[in-house]
């Protein structure tokens, strides 16, 4: 319904329409940003899980609380269908290069021969093959839990760290927990590895890779006096044979066998992790939408008020239409159509605005926020549902104005 | 489009009261009246005597607070709101003192509006609206908006709109009240002509004795009552 009002009234009506569209647009843009970025980050994490080269992960609550990692390798490897068992310990240490520069780095202790097969297709190309960390079994230095065997003192550095500190293969790097170089141990840089271009989560760009037993000794997670957790690691990643990896029943059977050996640790398949991620994503999406519904409620309340105001301004027009004999449904349809047009304009403005906002964050923001925005995924189905929801709610918002219009006394409206 | 047959309208002890309690206003007090099909009736009386209220009741814009109003022997109160609205759309043409054209529609669109509501097709609407505007002498002003028309032209568009669905009952509330003498005469001539051409009932509310003189039946109102009812031979 086109408004019946003077020029000033029309200007007011236009201003109100613009404000209503802006309010709904802002209300739509919020879920677009939250859901798109959240969905993108989730997809990235899910892809990480789905692209991993291992199928089962053993984990425990707290820091480095899986004990007896080296012996677990032997126990788990004995289970039928298990092909590789890779314990990983992650600890932040200090690195001192030859020029004396000190930098904290994320050190990952691994068993080289077991670690390489756990790398997924997207990660495998980032590491040298074979991984040049001396003893591929880490059994020599570990020496049945005595840690008395010969250590290789080999270390791989991440390419960002190598580039930042001009560390080359063949150089030495002193590593230790203390800030002083005097307490650090000299390692030989035997190679470099890359890091994924987009990093979210705890994996740092400045990282090093060294034999598990070396890192355990350096950080107090080996066996012996003063040890916090004996032969400790964070997680144990397990690779199974191809025919088992693709057979859920067989995979569950292997998982059960591992769980029986370590009933006090969590044993999950990556499928379960993916399901957990999906569940968490659903919760987050619901939370985002709930959060956005507050803005949406304000936008629709504004729309309801604008429509009500229009009815007030169009009293005479409505009275004329009713006097002529236009049915109530025609009057109601005009108001609902008004609401739908404003809501549709707001929805489009919100979708476009949200997209532009995400692109701006991805281009101009810094740090993790920018990286998260770069991962944003604009799901047309979800965005369509948001727009459809707004349109549906606009019908509800127009109910008050419609009721007011239909209750107008014709004679009164024409006075 | 077929012309709607003019109804026989009867009012029996019809009263209309606005508001409640001490602040209520009794606009009509026990009106008895019968309008035969095809009559040309003028309604005269001072301001606030109930002329417009009577017109609104005749045109089904309002309902009596008491008494009975019937069309062709059937009480209007027994009809649903939807029925009354449809009856109004098909059978009644209103002409208001202030024209009440929709300012965002052109002259032709204003005339087409009742036809649209009745579901007349686009081509037929356009053809008929053009013919009606031609009948009121506004062929050249079809595409003009109300603010581009003179008062006399606006009222002619309003007459054309009132005739859009070929109603049997034309109700004109002071149709010349805001017009000069020349336009008053022209509009009056137009109303007399279109009424005669369609044999429709025309009820015309006016303060102007010269306008009232054109009617064949004259009602005089005072304080919500009909105090004078005279037919010319």
What features would you describe in this structure?
The complex is a heterodimer of chains A (415) and B (233). Chain A has 415 residues and is α+β, with helices and mostly antiparallel strands. Chain A folds into two domains: 7-47 and 276-414, no CATH class; 61-264, no CATH class. Chain A has 15 helices and nine strands. Chain A has a six-stranded mixed beta barrel with strand order 2-3-7-4-6-5. In chain A, a hairpin with an 8-residue loop joins strand 5 (172-176) and strand 6. The longest helix of chain A is centred in the N-terminal third of the chain and has 44 residues, at 7-50. The radius of gyration of chain A is 32 Å and the shape is elongated. The two termini of chain A are 21 Å apart. With 233 residues, chain B is an alpha/beta fold. Chain B has a single domain (39-61, 84-231), classed as Rossmann fold. Chain B contains seven helices and ten strands. Chain B has helices spanning 51-58, 81-91, 107-117, 122-135, 151-162, 181-198, 209-212; strands at residues 9-18, 25-35, 40-44, 66-71, 74-75, 92-95, 169-173, 201-205, 217-222, 225-231. In chain B, a hairpin with a 2-residue loop joins strand 9 and strand 10 (225-231). In chain B, helix 3 (107-117) crosses helix 4 and helix 4 packs across helix 5 (151-162). The relative contact order of chain B is 0.21. The mean pLDDT of chain B is 91. The chains are: A alpha+beta (415), B alpha/beta (233). At the A-B interface, helix 11 and helix 15 of A face helix 1, helix 2 and helix 3 of B.
